[in-house]
Amino acid sequence: MSDHGGPDAYLHLSIHGPPKYRKPDFVTAARTLSGDRPMQFRPFGLVIVLASAAVLAACEGTMGTGGATVGTVEGDAGTGSQTSGDAAASGVGDDPVSSTDTTGTGTTGTDASGSFQGHPLDDPSGSLAARTIYFEFDSSEVPGSERSTIEAHARYLSEHSGALITLEGHADERGSREYNVALGERRAEAVRQLMTLLGANAPQIRTVSYGEERPAAVGHDASAWGLNRRVEVIYRVRE
């Protein structure tokens, strides 16, 4: 018998009446669409969302802390600048500049009594201040008037074995170039011999001649010639 007719159907209608209206069952529909396994409510998605929000909040907090850290570093740099300012304020580097000799033995100048304080080679009024020996025309003999200068430097050399000098011989423009170079050499050698006789050690002294090539005075008269006939004492090393 058909499922839609017959005595059983009428009997059912007479006993139970017509079927009542039911609202659509979306859970049942979803179960039907998804297959045999019924759809279940899973809270994991909500947990993941909440966890992600917490992570983002933590990251924002960390970034804020990082910004504060950068600020601290800049503050430290500012402190360093302030330290430099404090150093300047305390007078570091503000002392008057004082002349210092090349050996680093101390500053030069005069004390309250007017006595020179510093390296003896820097004393402008000392016996070592004169470092030029003058000669007569066409002569390599040391004049008596120049002996005191040679003695002063010979004494210094004998007392300071580490000091080294060069004696530069010169001539005026008269005469040939070759002759004047030889004349300048004889003059430097004459000074060297006298210094060694007065106590200086020969290895401390070196000689060289420039002849007329390096005049002290430019001119063509007796005054310029007299200044150019000379030997200059050059300290290469001093103690």
Task: Give a structural overview.
The model is unreliable at 32-39 and 61-106 (pLDDT under 50). The chain is globular. The strands form two sheets. It has a four-stranded mixed β-sheet with strand order 3-6-4-5. Strands 1-2 form a two-stranded antiparallel sheet. Strand 1 (109-110) and strand 2 form a beta hairpin. With 239 residues, the protein is of the alpha+beta class. The longest helix is centred in the first third of the chain and has 46 residues, at 44-89. It has two domains: 1-74, no CATH class; 120-237, 2-Layer Sandwich (60s Ribosomal Protein L30, Chain: A). The protein has helices spanning 7-16, 26-34, 44-89, 147-159, 177-197, 222-228; strands at 109-110, 116-117, 132-134, 164-170, 205-211, 230-237.
